[in-house]
Design a protein that fits this description.
mainly alpha; glutathione transferase activity; 84% helix; membrane
Length: 128
């Protein structure tokens, strides 16, 4: 019943793992040693992708599971998949230029808010 939201969760965490790896690669490429967090703008964009995705995961994962439990695991997984596509588009765009991150950010933030709002509806309806 919850296999699809579980898959989305595992894929989301895997995506985050790739982004962590990318930061390590960028540190070597742009010679930005820890604990430095600034340097070459190309490095800073890679770091921001990782940091912003972490910020989004904290919001997304509970919303995904609340929605899946109170509304629908199938719909939760579908909306969660849209979030994943948005995060990939965000990373891909931001790696190229800061101006190219907007579409991916929009897809992922709207998906997360749909999950949260749907969760509220499902929770409220569960009281009746």
């Amino acid at each position: 019943m919850y296999s699809l939201p579980s898959l989305i969760t595992a894929l989301s965490l895997s995506l985050y793992g790739v982004l962590i790896f990318n930061v390590g690669q960028a540190r070597r490429k742009y010679k930005v040693s820890p604990p430095q967090m600034t340097g070459d703008p190309d490095f800073e964009r890679v770091l921001r992708v990782q940091q912003n995705t972490l910020e989004q995961l904290i919001f997304f994962l509970p919303a995904l599971w609340l929605f899946s439990f109170y509304v629908s695991p199938l719909w939760g997984a579908g909306i969660g998949a849209a979030w994943l596509v948005g995060r990939i588009a965000y990373a891909w765009g931001y790696y190229q230029a800061a101006e190219k991150r907007s579409i991916g950010f929009g897809i992922s933030i709207i998906s997360a808010f749909v999950l949260l709002l749907g969760s509220f509806v499902g929770i409220v309806l569960s009281f009746t």
